[in-house]
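I hope you will forgive my troubling you with a question about protein structure. The record follows directly beneath this note:
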Amino acid sequence: MRFRLISVLALMMAILMLVLSGCGSEKEAEKNAEQSDKAEGGKSEEKDSGKKENENKIEGEDVFDGERFNEMLWGYYEAQGYEHTGSKDDTAEFLEGMKYIEIDGKEVAALPLMVQFGQNSHFLSSFTYDGEIYSPYTELGKTMFRKAYIEEVGDLTEKEFKRIEKLLQLDLAEVSFVNKEGKVSISNFSYEVEDDTVSFYEVEVDTDDYTVEIEEDPAFTCDFLHVGGKLIMAAKGVQRDYVAHGYQESARMLSFSGYALNEKNRYEDLDGFYFSMDNEDEDITVYVDLTGGESPVDAQMELDKETGEFTLSWTQRWINTPSGLDKEDDEVEIEGVIVPVEAYGFADYSGFFMFIDGTCYKYLMSLEEYEELRERAMEDAGSLTDSEKEDLTATKRDILAELVAAFKKEGIDATVDYTSGQVSLKSNFLFGTDKSDLSDKGVEYVNAFMRVYTSVVMKEEYAPYVTKIIVEGHTDTSGSYSHNLTLSQKRAESVVAQCISVSSQIGDIITAQGCSYDYPVYNDDGSVNMEQSRRVTFRFVLSAN
């Protein structure tokens, strides 16, 4: 079956060769593009055929009872007991009683020896632009990719970029096979999860005309099960246990983090947490973030690395009040199983899954992505001492808590984000369609907003910390990126001019920045909320006093 890629993918390949480094081989890039098309067809028949072949009943108690999805396999898994020293003896136990299949004309074990699932297997795990290395999976990386694309190729619409983004975010699998002699080989596939079966598909791209050829049937299939913190895979009546990289004895430090990508799939009000455990003393350090910018007081975590079973608990939490930061009694104990989603050789890569009472909660925002949000409110935090960071964090929380109370008291319609420190204003009535001048109603609203905003942010106890106020213009995703970039910049400048007319004291620290549609607002189903995406945001930057 053959599918012709849209022309923008050809452009995509062009920019990859022009501005990106560290992309892997051209053949790998082609394989990933193939997987994009493959996701659009042929899956149901392939999976049906796979299930008929692999009627395996895996022994073990599954910790998950619900709909399965590709991301739940993200991470690097290695057959238990395999030490990969290069000796043939390493694979002897794995191959005992093994059945075999044919891949690329070679006979190999029906089960992988090692497998790495997820975006970390992508040919474009990083790229270089203007001398800096970026990840395409962070908001900053996406923004820089757009800039590189526009400079090297030309303008593109959001719809075109979404097609490129889909190519960048394919779920791939790097599979290590082993033959009867113990020799290991590596191949790349796209993969798809359905029920308790994962199917692997071969992909190939013709670089002359950018057509993608996809095998109609999967190259091979495996059944799988999460049992505790381990993954069990089975094929042709044979099953093997696999250990996630974070739980392997070779890992010197068990250290990974996770932050929910959407509010629908996190556990209650637990935004995310980071923890680390030295394998020698097994003392765990844990940092927890709750909704609304709150956090537990001295959270504790117990973890069994063999089973993945954990207990996370605290007795008090820090809360934001109009008068500042305070403690509140909060008896919490969370028990379940945690499965790390950690790429081999990459700490803090993709987070983890929590299995609690049969439900799987996704925490897949990496620490890098989370810190990117936090650093936007404290841009020089990297050079600060721990005590200075704590001081700034407390100051930010106090400012935001007071803003929420003041907006409510004065009836100002504004949304406050405790994580990024942003205050958002809907721009629907601030500007006319495709206009950058404030409407009469917009002028009236900005005047009222600024009187409240500056009354808090520029208070005597906060003003010494506030070094910058950034006004950002945001558009929806209709039209071209460059047109929206110009429009959003002009809108931000109009708001800044009006702000200075209301409060001249901020004239030296307030700046305007256009963001086009770099940061759209999404609905729960993943589609762009066009109305909410059209907005103007305010954020302050703090520096140590």
In short: The first strand starts at residue 2 and ends at 4.
